[in-house]
Amino acid sequence: MNISVGQALEYLKERSRGDIIILPHAYDAMYDFDRDIKEELLYDCLLKRNVDGIIKQKRNRFRLYYKQEGSRMNYDLIIIIEFDNASRNNIKVVTTYEQSTKRRLR
Fold it and tell me: Which domains occur in the chain, in start order?
């Protein structure tokens, strides 16, 4: 299975919380590296918010960009996801981090 950007966006719309698997590296990135990215924020972005940007990194892996508000408005939340090869129903969160909006706007 080789998912396109359009398919990835459609599959995201059809998912529920139980379909999302946060991998150990993503948890490390959220908490151990002083990033203070809350798990609920990931679920909110993936299940409720529109993606502000998407790049296909490799087969079934995508980098998602989400604009943030308030004190974090100068940073996009980046979520790297991968669709399970066996089933498009499972979405693995590979890692997550914040990136300056200047990188997106250049």
Answer: 5-105 (3.30.2310)
Query: Under 8 Å CB-to-CB from 56, ≥6 apart: which residues?
Result: 4, 5, 8, 62
Tokens representing residue 86 in the block: 């066996």
Reported as a single tens digit per residue, the pLDDT across 34-45 is 678 889 999 999
Reading the block at residue 20, the tokens are 């999302």
Dihedral (C-alpha) 73, 51, 41, 24: value to the nearest 10 degrees?
Answer: -120
The DSSP call for residue 7 is: H
Q: Which two tokens stand for residue 103?
A: 């990188």
